[in-house]
Write a structure and sequence with these properties.
The complex is a heterodimer. By secondary structure, chain A is mostly helical. Chain A is about 65% helix and about 0% strand. By secondary structure, chain B is an all-alpha fold. Chain B has one domain. Chain B has 8 helices and no strands. In chain B, helix 1 packs parallel to helix 7, helix 3 runs antiparallel to helix 4 and helix 4 crosses helix 6. Chain B is globular and about 60 Å long. Classes of the chains: A mainly alpha, B mainly alpha.
Chain lengths: ~325, ~190
Amino acid sequence: MTEAPAFSPPYLHAGANVPAIMREVALALVPGVIVYFFCFGWGVVLQCLLCMSYALAVEALLLRLLGKDVRLFLGDGSAAVTGLLFALCISPFTPWWTSLFGIAFALVCGKHLYGGLGRNPFNPAMVGYVFVLLSYPAETNRWPGPEIPNLAEYISIILRGEGSAIDAFSGASALNEMKSRLGDMQIVSEILTAPGFGHLAGRVTEWINLAFAAGGIYLILRGVIRWHIPAAVLAGMFISSAFLATLDSELHASPGFHLLAGGTMLGSFFIATDPVTSPETKNGCLLYGFLIGLLALLIRRYGAYPDGIAFAVLIANAAAPLLTRLTLPRLPGEVR
Amino acid sequence: MNTPSLMIFIDACLINNFVLALFLGLCPFLGVSTRTETAFNMGLAVTFVMLLTSVSAYLINLLLNAIGAPYLSLICYIVVIASSVQFVEMVIKKYSPALFRALGIYLPLITTNCAITALALFQTSRGYDFIQCLAFALGSGAGFILALMLMSGIRERLELSDVNPILQGTAIALMISGVLSMAFMGFAGMGR
């Protein structure tokens, strides 16, 4: 028997490396960022720049402290992408120190404690986001309302945090509005006629979500991510929200609302698909994605927090090693 | 106290998970979460002890209330827990010596596990009836298994990565449980 088994080397290198993938991800985020900018103004750009520079600075400091090659690891762009994803999760009004704490926590407790890139069990951006969400609920829950501040006003809001300027501009996000009004015994069809809502979800969030989805589809076409996870997240959210909506469509928002509200598309295409923290098998990925969609919807509908994507991703990250193990293909002749 | 049993189960399993939300029973959570099989079996052992404790604590409470001596409940719970742990220990030693060795000191230590005492005390103070007690014990046990399994999956994976030597073992496990607990805070506010 000299025939080599099908899985033995030599392999052909596909030419993919970390910097190239990170560039693709950043490129795919561009349409989302542009629509986000048109909807919410300069704050979005400021937050992106701020968080990316924080991420690079904190990463450089950590690499130096840990005695690793600063230029090599900083150049791979993973820290910058973590910063960018974090910036797109938080509200454009978030004060500068809140995002600094978030980024620092993300990179220290979400990445470098476990040995750096490729070893982290949790998605660093989500660890940082959940940290600021839990620690600074007031700072992270103000979203730009109908009126959009200009550049100077945004700078003063981000630098000073508190103040009367922020009260003049801030409103509730579509998810917040839906949650609080449902809590006040209003019905869905009535809530959807309020000024902040558009065709299906929030007037602006639906366009932002569509733009992120377009970027995500680009990533799938380029072969950077596989379709399994995003499809499973969206299916999980669609099926569970459709189930609730058929029970009573006046008590539970429609699947269309949930798919286009909050961070659904950003989460399913860019955050859940992190190759480090997702399962290694295809079936595992399907289960993992479905779990995220289901948990996110449950937290949105029944939990105290408006959006559940971040929590759902962290829980599914924790379950990823088990899901991989559960769905490992059986070797020929293996007995379980 | 008319909470439906299903709600009690979900509450004990996810929302107020004994390990990740109430920080009870951390000793076996950190001690036996290095291998998934062992973690699962430990979880089953703890669940079984919880079930026994819950049923006996319910009956004892009825008895103590009947003779007008509810102040004896804590002492009675200790006796009940210790004897049910002893029972589980004998069974495992007899039927699976390998598992007995794998669980090691953590098996007899279930006796002093605060999660079990908390279970008995919570169900008494919340005035659960018999079915609710069962749901509470099963939910807490399922939550304990869930936390232990998630933890062991991550720790098995981390063995392959170069965690800083200072952090290896319990330190990194505590960091992970911190993040896990943050993730489970997402369930806060459910069921109200």
